[in-house]
What we know:
Layout: H1 2-11, H2 14-32, H3 38-45, H4 54-79, H5 90-99, H6 103-137, H7 141-158, H8 163-176, E1 180-181, E2 188-189, H9 203-224, H10 250-272, H11 277-292, H12 304-320, H13 322-328, H14 334-345, H15 354-357, H16 359-382, H17 384-390, H18 395-412, H19 417-435, H20 440-464, H21 475-497
Antiparallel strand pairs: 1-2
Helix pairs in contact: 1-16, 2-4, 2-16, 3-4, 3-9, 3-14, 4-5, 4-6, 4-12, 4-14, 4-16, 5-6, 5-12, 6-10, 6-12, 6-13, 6-16, 7-8, 7-20, 7-21, 8-20, 9-18, 9-19, 9-20, 10-11, 10-12, 11-12, 14-20, 18-19
Amino acid sequence: MDTILAGIGDAFTLMNFAYIAFGVFMGIMVGAIPGLNGPMAIAVAVPLTYYMDPLAAVAFLIGINKGGTFGGSISAILLNTPGSPESTSTAFDGYPLVKKGKGMKALKMALYSSVTGDIFSDLVLFTVAAPLALVALRMGPPEMAAVFAFSLTIIAGLSGKSMLRGLLAAILGAFVACVGLDIETAQPRLTFGMGELIEGVPIIPLTIGLLALSEIIIQVEARFLGREKNVGTYNVFGKDIPPEDKRVSWAEYRSCLRTIIRSAVIGTGVGAMPGIGAIVAGFLGYGAARRASSNPEEFGTGKLEGVAATEAANSAVVGANLIPLLALGIPGSLSAAILIGAFLMHGVDPGPLIFREHGRLVYGIFAAMFMANWINFVIGNLGLRLFALIVSVPKSVIHPVVVLLCIAGAYANGNSMFAVAVMMVAAVFGYLMRKFDFSFATFIIGFALGETFEQSVRQSVILFKDQPLDLFTRPIVVFFVALTIFSVWRILRSNLSRPLRPQAAGAPREATS
């Protein structure tokens, strides 16, 4: 109890409050810009936290993540162009509401449902993470290796259109993680004589290049080839708009509360399972709301409940994603994988031992997350006009600024141009992965898990090299191996049985960020 109270006391300081508020503000601002998103902002911001206190650093990055999730709904509602992929289904009813003159009502419902879903998933995280970590502490190397294999399989199978490409991306990420000193013999491997690679490929420049810089290359290419999407805008702040269309009444919020809670439960469940992510959660929440409605035909025509369903679901993923990260050391999403870099940079190794070795920090993070939800609510309410204007900032201004931030962020990782070179190579690699439809998110998660996975496998080999059949006497290993095989079979069967039909004219295309 003393540890919990001390951690909460650490979080509630003026400095941490300022960092969280700044993180939330930056997250909303970046998320509101079409093509930019929360994980990209986190990747660029991680190097800025190098000299911060560990609690302030993680709280700042979590603030960006929470703000970015809501921020994506702003451009989805105002421009019919999701600021981030998880807000795709927000546009289904958000943009029709704007055309009806109810843009501010849609934005505020997105904010309120987002904060509600976030609070719900955070409460589940606070309740579940520590007991799950206690269970994980009883698991040896073979059990952890089996859990990692199952997680990578699920992530690879659900992170793209092709499971084979997802698996290749995950394996390639784990292969890149092998660069550096061998964990058993301490001999350099795959360094090609470069002393800078002795400690491995730095995760921060790698993620900045794969996420941020490669996205800028894609957007510049689209602009050069004339493929940019231009959507009409509507004035949501006009004086001729009735006051009741600029706010969400308590009766309107209460009428959507059942939908919000349902979506929060869906988002929390999805977030706790590695690899599924907020995009799937948003669509599942929207679909569940439509099926449960007595007037499903109204969805897609400007129904407030549709906005609430999506935003509560995708925001609930944010807190739940930290359940496998803190309890097992497995990143449940791209954002969680980037957070691993921040934890390691501050000497904290995510996993079941974190509650024993850094319990005060963990409970401080929990308190900071709770604080970030209310800060998100306040800043979102007060800054809606500003954030609505940000969506119209020209890309010719945004792109150079992001590129400069990427270079500065990469250089700050070790104060060397080698990190910048790693970022440039990763950017080209990320561009090619996007072009050939390989999941860069799966690659990053595979990279983040690679070293721990290898360590668990090697320890298992050492323990059971003389009697490998003894592995089948461990029920957890057998269970997860069987689950992995079953999952591969189901996903392959689903992919092979899916009919390949040409897209119908006028059908909506898959949203990209």
